[in-house]
Amino acid sequence: MSKISKFFKGGGSSSSKGRRGPSPQEALARLRETEEMLSKKQVYLETRIERELALARQHGTKNKRAALQALKRKKRYEKQLSQIDGTLSTIEFQREALENSHTNTEVLKNMGYAAQAMKKVHENMDLNKIDDLMQDITEQQDVAQEISDAISNRAAFGDEFDE
């Protein structure tokens, strides 16, 4: 790739990153930054609304025109505040959906790793060998039980023989 195309596409590693889109962490960070910015703007607008309301009260009946202008600005600020509330709600919903998607992706990835690990563990196991082994174990347990029974029976010295 030429230097000029790298410059316009953002370089080697970042251009491949751009094609895949931002990572979930980057997107979440940006959404949180946007939420912070909108929250600050909300606080600013709320103080402006209070200031315009105080100005309208101050002018009251003395200067109706100034009072009406202050009320109009207050109304405009309230409209902006309402829009910001809706935008914040949408961003919060999107952030929560992204967090859930990221969590689901991580869970699915880890389940895939676990499945691969189980496959690797079971790779050297053969069902026929397992059946043979289980039969051998059962036979040896039967032999051990017979030996145990034989040892635990009281010897009947002479009781078994007929005179």
Question: Briefly, what is this?
Answer:
The chain has helices at about 5-10, 10-20, 25-60, 65-120, 125-150.
Describe the protein's architecture and organization:
By secondary structure, the protein is mostly helical. It has a domain at 24-116: ESAT-6-like (Helix Hairpins, Orthogonal Bundle). The chain has five helices and no strands. The longest helix has 59 residues, at 64-122. The model is unreliable at 11-16 (pLDDT under 50).
Q: What is the mean pLDDT?
A: 85
Order of helices and strands: HHHHH
Query: Compute the gyration radius: what is it?
Result: 40 Å
> What would you say the CATH architecture of one domain is?
Orthogonal Bundle
For this entry, give a set of tags.
163 residues; mainly alpha; Helix Hairpins; 5 helices
Describe the secondary structure blueprint for this structure.
Elements: H1 3-9, H2 12-20, H3 24-59, H4 64-122, H5 127-152
